[in-house]
Amino acid sequence: MSRDPQHSRALELLEILHREESPAPGAPVRRETSRVRIPKQGALPQSAAWLERLYHGELVPRERKPQVIDTRRSCGPYMVSVDEPPMVLLDACSQIATLNEGFANPGILQGLHEGRFDRCLWANPDNTIAAVPELDEYAAFLLGQAPAGLAHASFVCAGGAEANEKALRLARLHGPDPARRRVLAFDGSFHGRTLVTLGATSNPAKRKGVDMPGFEAVFCPRDLSALEATLRERGDELYAVIVEPMMAEGGDIHLTREFLLGVRELSRAHGLPLIVDEVQTGFGTSGSFFWWTKLGLGDSPETAPDLLTCAKKAGLGVVLSRWADEEPAPVNVASALRGLIQAETAHLQAALEAPIRERLHLLVAEFPGLVSEPRVAGTAFAFDLPSARERDAFINQRFARGFMTYHAGEQTIRFRLGACWELAHLDDLFARVSTALRRLDDPTAQTCAREGAPHRRTRWFEIREISEDDWAEVMALEQRAYEPERSDSEEFLRETAAAGVALVARDVETGELLGFVFAAPLEHYPDVSGPDGDRFRGVGHTLYAADLTVSDQARGNGVGRALKTEQIRWARANGYTFVSGRNRVGLTTSMAGLARSLGAYTAKVLDNQYGGDAQAEYYRIPLRSPAPLEQQGPHGHDLASGVQAPFGPRPAFMATRELVGPTASRLNLSNWATPDSIQFIEHLRAILPRGTGHLYTTSSRDELLDKSLRCIKMTRPAATIAVGFEGGYLGHTTASARSLSDPAGFGPGFAMFDWPLLPHPADVGAEACVAALAALIEAHGADAVIGLFVEVVGERSGKVLSSAAALALSKLCSAHGIPLAVVETASGGYRSGAGAWGLDGLDPSFCPNLVLWYPGGQLGQIFIDSRWWVGTPLMLISTWDGDELSQIRTHEHLRAAHRLELGPAINALDDLVREAATAAGDGARVGGQGLYRTLSLAGAEQAETVQARCRAKGLLLARGLPDTLCFVPALDIAPAALRGPVRTILLDAIGAGSGLDLGARERHEYA
Ligand SMILES: Cc1ncc(COP(=O)(O)O)c(C=O)c1O
Question: 78 has which bridge partners?
């Protein structure tokens, strides 16, 4: 709905380009699983071209690694670049310890193809509006693993820093005295990069410029007598103690059981809640689900912490606690489900500890005096080098040596593997590490030499459908290849060939039979274990691969792969959705590897097979991406979830996207780029809010504010006061967001920092508001002010920023060099009706310095002008920096919204809220703009009653400030629905008297 045809045309052309570059949803999977590959001289031409597009004009900091990653080809420990030939690296830190089964996690693939993601893949359900079963299931799983007494699980959007913020909030609420503002943390600690968690991070260099009056950490040496003394002297000032059982960023320091038990006992003796930060160590990393429990702690309430936090492998932030969280926030449900799936197989990591230990000790023995302090638990291991010089000489070689890892602290090199690592992968990694250690002083060690180039030779065999002449040789090979209980009869194979397809491979010169492959529809095998219990039996879309046999002489020559590929091609051409098959566990690893490289996942492990106690893997190779299901049944009317799902739960246009790669192979966007993420950023470049020229990405709404404040403080280190507005909302998980949001409706002690909230110009007029800001500047000095944060449309209040107020505030801010940030969550993404941004509807001379936008999911965008931009790499990052799946959805939302004509729906919503306000009578006020409208009623009770009555009739409304209802429909809502059933329900709810049992609220779930 852009008003400028030229701009619309530019967006259309960009979309055409992007669609041409994107994989079609049905494109064959080509996973690279078998080895490290390094192109000649490390040349990455496609990656370089993509990165040039990303960095063009310094839009984002140059902080991504040189390989642009193909999530659809990456598999297990192998991370594959988009190049031809690709660079294939062993990811020995598992995406900063976020993956426990490597890339293309089989459980996630299975979930995607068997319907587990159907409620959260295409759009993000708003868990603050309706119950989300995936989150309930996740909470139940985690509580089953939790240390004694931790009876509540809550989820936060971004990751570890937010989880710790939430834990600190709960500790403060329930600790000795909610007025206290200090916590105890340990030397070497790292707890995240939001203001408060960074404040509790011991490295002064990392904390520089972000220390903020109102919160303080007291750092204590890792020593019980020092702790005892600190608590004796300062225990009365503290409200919590926070500790990592293994200090990862501090240098993989394994704290002892005795020390941690002492921390538990001393904190309890001083009445202080103990937070155990397992962001990096939880989810089976140590071999036990939690590091704390690995140490034999936590099986009784006496040795359990009061709060425990997770993130990374959890997919989002998790807080387990003795106390319930009364302030839930929206999260990206698909990330939670990925976390749950990782949790379900977390135990598989334990098996790696012994083989890693063995190899690590051999490494130490090989390099005496160079490699020291080997340490391992589960899939995490580390060693020390003598100094930062050797450390850097090692790290700088990593790509040339074919692996990825990080250092920590001055001397430590650390590794994080996953359950997908087989012994051969371990041997390969340790050989590479050993080479790197031998070449620390070699000036050429960083130069990439070609490795693992595929052999190119002309096909020496042909594949064709079976003919009668082939049968005798086929049966002879079958009987040679298998022991009697595994070999198939001729009758069985003939029936298969008749019902499906049989292909043979023969040497083109000698005519020798090299192998064959048989398959028929699943339904053809009622008595075969695997097909007999397949959930898709009867659907008619699965081809069962009954037999794949390659002669001894032909093995290792690509014959098996060629036969399987040909079979898949046949299945695809004949309309099948899946190819399934069986492999004997243990005996046929090459076959299992082949299937996996073609995108297979294990659908089931079958026991008692082959006439004994052997196991078989029943695998499934999907031939198509999952597609959005048709809408099922009546949905009611959701006028609440528009921020999370701007086009409802299953937008049809999402079918054009291949989502399996980005969902099953999640990357740290802080470190790596993908074509999808770059295309999204290019789209943002085309619609940058006016005045801005750069952007940062975050993983949540709250992180938008934290990152903006830290960014500004890099140029204004002395500033300590951020300024917001009454009724405003910037999030409620991190301390900074709570301190800038109106506390109405939240629990006690909501703000952490004493930051002022100005009266809103919509209430007092621009002049009075500006006068209040001027008085504040006068009182504290302009240099004390970090920035002014104002919503274009108040998400909880509906208060709208007028052009007059915007210009007046901006004038005063720029006169004093104070940055002005506008928040577009309720107005951006075309929702205001004025254009891509609400800003587009304000006076064209108004140019804010920053624009903050939370588009839903696990994503946030900060747009910023050149004056306040900090382009230094790796300064303003967190583990994820967003989520690729959320980016893809947002990209599609922006494309679809741009095409929409919103006027009729905006008018219908305007008529609705106005009519409702009239019906509600005295004191009712309408607010908001475009397709984000509010109705403030006489009080909280009335708002609650109307909301509950509407909900009972299937109309979901959101709640803003306690007295305010919010109307946030999908952008493509039919005006007729607003004028028809929605109107009837709403007016009934306002007009009807009492009589509704508010205790009997329905729980609406997405169908
Ligand atoms: C122990 C610990 N806590 C917290 C964090 C912060 O997590 P995130 O980057 O997800 O905010 C990290 C990140 O490395 C960590 O290692």
Answer: 75, 90
CA of 510 to the centre of ligand 1 (A): 61
Residues 223-230 have a mean pLDDT of 98
Distance 397 CA to ligand 1 centre (A): 26
**Which residue of 244, 255, 280, 310 sits with most ligand 1 atoms within 8 Å of its CB, as the best mutation to test the pocket?**
280
Other CB atoms within 10 A of residue 754 CB: 10
Cα 935 to averaged position of ligand 1 atoms, centre (Å): 40
Per-residue pLDDT tens over the stretch 764-782: 999 999 999 999 999 999 9
Ligand 1 pocket by C-beta < 6 Å: which residues?
159-161, 164, 190-192, 244, 248-249, 277, 279-280, 311, 878-879
For residues 520 and 500, the answer to whether their CB atoms sit within 8 Å is yes
Q: Rounded to the nearest whole angstrom, what is the distance from the C-alpha of residue 79 to the centroid of ligand 1?
A: 22
Give the orientation angle of helix 106-113 with respect to helix 333-344, to 10 degrees. Answer: 130
Using the predicted structure, report yes or no on whether residue 894 has a pLDDT greater than 80: yes
> Which residue's alpha carbon is nearest to atom 13 within ligand 1?
192
The model's pLDDT over 63-109, given as tens digits with 9 standing for 90+, comes to: 999 999 999 999 999 999 999 999 999 999 999 999 999 999 999 99
Q: Quick check: 162 and 130 in contact, CB under 8 A?
A: no
What DSSP character marks residue 485?
Answer: G
- The pLDDT value given to residue 611: 80
Lowest mean pLDDT: which of 113-122, 548-557, 900-909? Answer: 548-557
For the chain, the first-to-last Cα distance in angstroms comes to: 31
Answer yes or no: are the C-beta atoms of 807 and 845 closer than 8 Å: yes
Q: Write down the pLDDT at residue 1000.
A: 37
Interior angle at CA 149, CA 143 and CA 154, nearest 5 = 45
- 3-state SS, residue 289: coil
Provide the b/e sequence for 323-361 (b: ≥16 CB within 10 Å).
bebebbbbbbbbbbbbbbbbbebbbebbebbebbeebbe
**How far does residue 190's CA lie from ligand 1's centre (Å)?**
7
Mutate to test the pocket of ligand 1, among 183, 186, 190, 733 (most ligand atoms within 8 A of CB): 190
